[in-house]
Specification:
mainly alpha; 2 domains; globular
């Protein structure tokens, strides 16, 4: 008599995304999300299906024993944030009907779940969950989100923001924060609002509004994470003012190629001497 059949799948132990055997596909998929266009949404919705087999595959991919399932759920939450305006359907720039977007995001969630759960899914289960996504995006287009011509500066700014979350236990972070707080209360708020609104219009016109949402979410998470020392128990004050100053600068850099230079300067200059933003060499300017 032959040995007993092997189980269809087993729990895969990992604690960090970097350990995942399907890392490249996961990163490529997540990088594509803020670049999903209004043309892509109806195509994703049209291809989504929910048969009994697909539902079972989905349940397996999202089971507690699937790899990094809590991170998958966090990705779902971030996805909703990226498409918040589309799901509300109230803004004049939203052209896709809300039910279509809702269905399309089901296809996106299935793809995210499949990419993370690939080690525990059969080839057939993985394929049916991933199929709508791969029909619309047959090739990986991004290794990371496209942050525009000033991507280095956007990354530098976002990379500096975690210093502010631990300022109560970091002298450099506190000094940086104090400088930003002084700048935040001294800047003409109406002027900055005008620059922000014009930059947002540029993001809409250049199909970067979901990248804009991603940048603001990433910056907010970086600055508001609990301090490792006091776990965020201290009342530091000025949080909203400084956060908005940093987020406006990051978003201004994101669309710097699509707005008047003066508007970008209004949003970015207050941080130029406080955060080490790399300056483009003359040869980089086209």
């Amino acid at each position: 008599m032959r040995g007993s059949r092997r189980p269809r799948w087993r729990k895969v132990q990992m604690s960090h995304l970097e350990e995942h055997p399907n890392l490249n596909e996961i990163l490529g998929l997540l990088a594509q999300l803020p670049h999903v266009s209004d043309r892509d949404i109806p195509e994703l919705a049209r291809r989504w299906r929910n048969t009994a087999f697909i539902a079972d595959a989905r349940a397996k991919a999202l089971s507690p024993d699937s790899p990094l399932v809590l991170e998958v759920l966090a990705c779902f939450e971030a996805l909703v944030a990226l498409f918040e305006d589309d799901l509300a359907g109230e803004a004049d720039y939203v052209t896709v009907p809300v039910p279509v977007t809702t269905t399309a995001l089901k296809a996106v969630r299935d793809a995210i779940a499949a990419a993370y759960a690939r080690p525990v899914l059969s080839q057939g289960e993985y394929a049916v969950l991933m199929q709508p996504w791969r029909q619309v995006f047959p090739e990986q287009s991004f290794d990371e989100p496209d942050l525009g011509p000033a991507a280095r500066e956007v990354k530098a700014l976002l990379g500096a923001m975690p210093l502010l979350s631990s300022r109560c236990h970091d002298e450099q972070g506190q000094a940086l924060y104090d400088s930003l707080a002084r700048a935040a209360v001294s800047i003409d708020g109406s002027l900055r609002q005008t620059a922000r609104e014009e930059s947002w219009r540029a993001a809409v016109l250049t199909s970067r509004r979901r990248v804009w949402a991603m940048v603001r979410r990433s910056g907010t998470e970086a600055m508001t994470r609990p301090c490792h020392g006091c776990r965020g128990g201290d009342d530091h004050g000025f949080d909203d003012l400084v956060l908005e100053l940093c987020l406006d600068a990051a978003c201004g850099l994101l669309v710097a190629d699509a707005v008047d230079e003066t508007l970008t300067d209004i949003l970015v200059m207050p941080l130029r001497d406080m955060i080490p933003l790399p300056r483009r060499a003359p040869d980089d300017v086209t």
